[in-house]
Amino acid sequence: MNKSDPWAAFAEIIRDPWSKIKDIKAKTGKKIIGHILPDVPEELIHAAGAIPVAIAGAGIPISLAQAHIPGYSCSHAMGALELRLNGELNVLDGMIIPYVCDTTRNLYHLWKNLFPDSPCEFLRLPKKIGDSNANQYLKEEYLRISKWLEEITGEKIVDETLGSSILIYNNSRDQLRSAYHMMEISPSSWTASRVISLFESAFRIPREEHLTLLERLPWNVMEETGTGRSRIYVKGKVWDPLEVTDLFDEYGFTLVGDEIVTGKRSVAIDPTIQKDLLQALVDRHMSLIPYTGYHVDPEQMIGDFITRVENSNAQGVVFLNPKFCEAAAFDTPDMILGLKEKSIPSLVLETSSRGTSLSQIRLRLEAFKEILSDDLP
Ligand code: SF4
Description:
Elements: H1 8-15, H2 17-28, E1 32-36, H3 42-47, E2 51-55, H4 75-85, E3 94-98, H5 102-114, E4 120-123, H6 134-153, H7 159-185, H8 192-202, H9 207-215, E5 230-236, H10 244-250, E6 253-258, H11 277-287, H12 298-312, E7 316-322, H13 326-341, E8 346-351, H14 358-373
Parallel strand pairs: 1-2, 1-3, 3-4, 5-6, 5-7, 7-8
Helix pairs in contact: 1-8, 6-11, 7-8, 7-9, 8-10, 12-13
Iron/sulfur cluster binds next to helix 4, helix 5 and helix 13.
């Protein structure tokens, strides 16, 4: 690793998160809890004295998993199972899989059957976000998961620990929001690929350590005019393939907003420090941009999405849809129609390590850049 390059540490974490986590576990003796994205509250895991690590299945070459999971499962689920089967996740002391779609539900049952001795819990997130009972339901679900975490770590989650965990994560989100802003005002130094590497890596090492690494970045740079750049908004699950952010830089796209679960969506809302801290985590979840598998009134879902795109001042929208994700495939046509009515061009990239090449994505982004360039002053 190049120690004089402050960005290199983040790229290294993404390249090989598991070696780093093994080192940290050996040094600290802390329990490691893996979680599938999205929306497992990391603050709860942290408050129980463990280290949360997000498992990114996208981009993992598959060989063992296909014997256990249908070939039409998304790369996120398949890649996570592959990592467990090939031993990479042996460092984990526990695993949380959130209920966001049939695929994650099936993954949970598979996990329990294949690895009966390794602790795994299913976080039953409410599918109906606007439902009046969802609030209380989620609070009870967080309580249930808290007890499970306490059993693993032997540490009680009390107000003091949860409060300080929330503060650490709020601080981290604040820094990441600033980094996103830097990408808009200084895109030649704070490139999309560098800034997104900050977000992706934040989910894979202790946040305290990540905050220290962020301090070394060149925060005092001059504003640029950014002429000739096209403003885009991205919708999808994760930055898959991660190299797509290099292509955004190469073709002069500026990210002005996104709904990626390891992107701007993840830092948009902080839980407030209040008397009932569990309720603060519930409130945060309910205020997040709904993930693609959640049930929201269709008209409201489209209307809110268009409003967010318009508020971002984006010239165009790129959908990074995971291949074999039914929920994303179901929502996207209506969203495209809504964008068309507002004369906002969009591009749908269906991505997967199984079957989509970077050169195909490159070609389509190049063509999209030309469409957006016609709109430049
Ligand atoms: S919602 Fe889509 S991308 Fe997310 S886990 Fe389910 S199938 Fe995969």
